[in-house]
Specification:
Pfam families: Nitroreductase. The chain is an alpha+beta fold. Helices cover 40% and strands 12% of the residues. Strands 1-2-4-3 form a 4-stranded antiparallel β-sheet. Helix 2 (35-45) crosses helix 6 (152-170) and helix 3 (64-75) runs antiparallel to helix 7.
Length: 234
């Protein structure tokens, strides 16, 4: 019994460490990730649960020229992020409200503060946001899509799949950054990757090794206490 408890404690620590060390990294080293590692991560991630095992995910893995073409198509489109249309789905509410507004602002101010960007330095903020579209210099950029005929339940399943990718990456010493910023630019992305019209671009994700020398990677988000969002009943 003691051996079993000790084994469970060790396994829990490994899993917890992968989850707790996961964060959105916004500066990567150029070190390439081999295809076998990417395949292993996606294979593990695909064990995510989905209603009636529909497995609603589709992934486009890009490197090198293809990844650069995506970046060029978006950055040369002339469409600023604040003008981009969320015409496939809306990620955020039309108008933010509490407590979500305060949390959103804390996240933005914290990131820009780590970069030394002041609250009125709009051009610098835009430049930092545009780094999304080069996948923060990660060697691997993934674009995720879902069939538009599927319903909300499949989107819930998709979230679990994405989380599995991020946790599996941590188990291999890699980091990620999930990026909804790509979704409004589906018109620019589609022709590069030959994405059919029946697929909605859900998000992108950067994958690679963290560049620990960059100040943006020193930024850490917090989490509200359990007592603010959990109710126990007996």
């Amino acid at each position: 019994m003691l051996e079993k408890k000790a084994r469970i404690a060790v396994e829990a620590e490994i899993v917890d460490d992968a989850i707790l060390s996961r964060r959105s990294v916004r500066a990567f080293l150029p070190d390439m990730i081999d295809d076998e590692t990417i395949r292993d991560i996606l294979t593990v991630a695909a064990r995510a649960p989905s209603g009636t095992n529909m497995q609603p995910w589709r992934v486009y893995v890009t490197k090198g020229k293809a990844k650069q073409q995506i970046s060029d198509a978006i950055l040369n489109s002339g469409i600023r992020a604040e003008k981009a249309e969320w015409d496939e789905y809306r990620y955020y509410p039309t108008q933010f409200f509490e407590p979500y507004l305060t949390r959103r602002r804390a996240n933005g101010f914290g990131l820009y503060g780590a970069l030394g960007i002041g609250r009125r330095e709009v051009d610098k903020m835009r430049a930092q946001h545009d780094r999304n579209f080069v996948f923060f210099d990660a060697p691997v950029g993934m674009i995720f899509t879902i069939d538009r005929r599927l319903n909300q339940g499949s989107w819930i399943d998709y979230g679990m799949f994405l989380q599995n990718i991020m946790v599996a990456a941590r188990g291999r010493g890699l980091h990620t950054c999930p990026q909804a910023a790509f979704a409004p630019y589906h018109r620019q992305i589609r022709p590069v990757l030959n994405i059919p019209d029946e697929e909605i671009v859900v998000c992108g994700m950067a994958l690679g090794y963290e560049d620990i020398s960059k100040p943006e990677n020193a930024f850490r988000t917090d989490r509200v206490p359990l007592e603010e969002w959990v109710t126990f009943s007996e």
